[in-house]
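STRUCTURE REQUEST FORM
Protein name: Phosphatidylinositol-specific phospholipase C X domain-containing protein
Source organism: Oryzias melastigma
Requested output: structure tokens
Priority: standard
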Amino acid sequence: MTFLPDETPLSAITIPGTHESLTLYGGPLAVCQIWTLKEQLRVGVRYLDVHVGIWFPTQKEIYIRDANWMFWQHMDLGKVLKEISDFLEIHKTETVLLKLSLHGLYKSKVEKSVKTMIGKFQNIVWTKMSIPTIKEVRGKIVFLRSETFKSGADNEKTQLFESNKLKNVKEKIKQIKSRICTHQIVVTENPATVLRSPKSLARRINLQLSDLIQEHKAMSSNSSCLGVLSMDFPSAETITKITHLKPCFNELYTSK
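Status: completed
Returned output:
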């Protein structure tokens, strides 16, 4: 992100991300990643999808679990925020997007605890609903709103995938282009169903995404923004390809 113009909206950048970013344990029907958080950040991942919760009344830490089977991922939210903040302390021109989904029987307690925890990092977090420019969030964690955690930038999921296939992509991107380029972060993901291995599906999905990225790389800068691409088991090569896509320089904000 170093060379991106300061006035670029965060929504106008194609951002490599991971789905269920910290689900490294639980067997073939649960595991979605092989890289640790530090490894993901180092290779270029800038969007993290994290599932947290409190499952017992005496539990003090906010644990990380997978979204479906609720396997503990040997990590807590405090450690996640610390590792991201340590990374940003070194890489001050970068930005990391973080989307939290709350689980368990004590969601209100979790939400209160998360907000308290965020307060400890208040100088390096963005929790506003509006979409920031790159200048506003260099060296910061940008929270994205979820169905269960309402603090953070507004965002929506795309429908680029239908039945595990990319369909009518050009037309769909055309329909959402104005939102992507100015005021709406969009997230594309295609998670496996509960009884399907994320790894087997990722082999098919990631090939399609790689072809899409290559196609957009050859297009003009006005057409190349795809928003956040959230993947299971992404390759370092695919992440690099994503980071080389140009932002969507839209006349709606370049003229301001």
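Reviewer notes: The chain has a mean pLDDT of 91. The two ends are 21 Å apart (CA to CA).
Form closed.
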